[in-house]
Amino acid sequence: MSRYLDDLRRELAEVGIGGRLRDRILAEAADHLAEGDVRSFGDPAELAREFADDLATVRSRRATLRSLAALAAAAAVFAPAFLLAATAGRTGDIFSAEWPPLGVLAVLGLVACPQLSFAAGLLALLRLARRRRERRLAAQDVALLLRRTRIALAFGGGTLASAALYALEYRAELDPWYVLAIPAAAAAAGACLAAAGIATRRAAGVKSSVPGEAGDVFDDLPIALPRRPWLLFALAAATAAAPALVAGGVTNEGPRNAAAELVFVAAGFLALGKRLGLRR
């Protein structure tokens, strides 16, 4: 029995199961082995894979839901930061920061990071919803779900960092309450994102062996669409650019803002399209 438990311990470590969960599995295995024949208990490697397949599905779903909740909290910080900037004393000159390069970086971050975070988070939610009835997710499914989640968290953190940097770089033109409140709120929301990131990393450490293809975004959509990634990109770009054009005015800043949105969407699609499962 001791040899079997040693083999099981080693196999559990191989598939990424450790800590208190591994100790509990070994304790339960020891209880069962004391009551029966070792040969009837099953191969340690196969048993470890079964545990890992179940755990990878449970942890990836839980980590994604926790991350989406943390991102919602981050959005509660970002939205006031973005909307109140116009009423907090700003003159509107992007180059009036304490150090203009950092100021421009903060503004670009406030524009690009939340859009990328929202897109990745939405894709993670779609995959979660489409696979909600499956008892065990395929290994590639788990990897894609967690990859989308990590990207959403990363750009969510970038959004918070940009909001805090914006408040600090333009503090000479901002109301004092804004300069104090936004970095503090960003730090609190960032702690939530960090905790979600740790849970996501733990989930990724468990190695599922369930076969199957992850597919792409077209497998996540509730309606069947032609599998044309570049057409999807064109629709997303138009959806992002049209409000910017209307809000800025066709004869004023609208064309410039719309062009910037097109550039952001194109850059995101080219850089992250495969990792997010938008194209193969």
Question: Can you tell me about this structure?
Answer:
The protein has 280 residues and is mainly alpha-helical. It folds into 3 domains: 41 residues, no CATH class; 154 residues, Butyryl-CoA Dehydrogenase, subunit A, domain 3; 66 residues, no CATH class. The chain has 7 helices and no strands. The mean pLDDT is 86.
Please provide a brief summary of the model:
The protein is 74% helix and 0% strand. The chain is mainly alpha-helical and 280 residues long.
> In the CATH classification, which architecture of the largest domain applies?
Up-down Bundle
Shape: elongated
Most strands sheet:
none
Question: Order of SSEs, N→C?
Answer: HHHHHHH
Oligomeric grouping of the chains: single chain
Q: Tally of extended strands?
A: 0
The count of helical stretches stands at 7
Percent range for helical residues? over 70%
What is the CA-atom radius of gyration, in angstroms?
A: 24 Å
Q: What is CATH's topology name of the largest domain?
A: Butyryl-CoA Dehydrogenase, subunit A, domain 3
Assigned CATH class of the largest domain: Mainly Alpha
Give the helix/strand class: mainly alpha
Give the strand content. Answer: under 5%
Mean pLDDT: 86
User: pLDDT below 50 for ≥5 consecutive residues: which ranges?
Assistant: none
Whole-Å distance between the termini?
Answer: 48 Å
Total individual domains = 3
